[in-house]
Design a protein that fits this description.
It is a multi-pass membrane protein. The chain is α+β, with helices and mostly antiparallel strands and about 350 residues long. The chain has two domains: about 15-275, CorA soluble domain-like (Beta Polymerase, domain 2), CATH 3.30.460; about 310-345. The protein has helices at about 45, 65-75, 75-85, 140-145, 155-195, 200-220, 225-235, 245-310, 320-345; strands at about 25-30, 30-35, 50-60, 90-95, 100-110, 110-125, 125-130. It has a seven-stranded mixed β-sheet, with helices on both faces. The longest helix has about 60 residues, at about 245-310. It is elongated.
Length: about 350
Amino acid sequence: MGSHPSETDVDEHPNNRIGSAPPRTRAWRCGKVEAEGFPVAQVSDYLERSDTVVWLDVCAPHHDDLQIVADELGLDPVAVEDAVSRHERAKLDRYDGYSFVNVYLPQLRDGVLSLYELSAFVTERALVTVRQENGLDIDELIARWDDSPVAEGLDAPKTWTGYLLYALLDLVVDRQLDAVQALDDEADEVESLVFDDTFPVKEVQRRSFRLRKNLGAVRRVSLPMREVLNTLLRRDLGIVAPPLVPYFQDVYDHTLRVGEWTDSLRELIANLLDTRLALQGNRMNEVMKKVTSWAAIIAVPTAVTGFYGQNVPYPGFSQHSGFVVSTIVMVVCSIGLYALFKFRDWL
């Protein structure tokens, strides 16, 4: 047995080395855990029992690695190719006897958004999850399966398989909500920067661009979830058992919330950028008013002395020391004005 109860011991079963981590397996019988950590080759043995549901998880497998899974469940080569390919669109494809689901879990850390791809094969009595990275906490998913009150009273195999899929999709949508919440908090910080007296233009531009980019990425992977849930909820297809329809409907409502939230945040960022431009224009006008006022004040004595051609003797007149002193005065005044303008962020 591996470090987790559901992990297959690859030392005892060397033929079950699939992907970058030991496969994880579990079997439920009448809603109760029957076995876990068994070899992948025994999946078909458990499925021979009409009252047993099986779950199999593999991480970062190659195409050849999934062949044993495909042989056990009779999976289509096209679906297997989609499961091992990167950057597939979030979708739900239906095949003869099973469905293929591809979704993404977003995670935001220090302003950097990561998207973790997750695929799943859903048959009448089996669920196979295929992860490209370790972005999904499998232990959290198992805890949801074991602790959720939704599982109470579910014992029919098809209903139990639908429950496993429900908990999986609910976890995915919760992660999408968490990501949007983090982006919302970051939008509040950008809003504070826009109205900051120091007005850090470059910081506002950098964070606004990053925020819009992250929002676009989250929206791109969350928007197709509506289509996935809509298809699952279609009564004529019969994919979801009637007792589970309200729970899938709840996940669908959360998906709508993710889409609406991202849309509102995109509008907020666009408004913040417009506000930043307006504030920057107003601030530039204020600076120009001050500089123009000082220029007008200095222009009056300059015009008077220039008109009358005044050239009065001053200390050091017609001497080398006077030239040096006047040069120093001009340099010091110029540097002083530059420092003042720079300090007030006029330059």
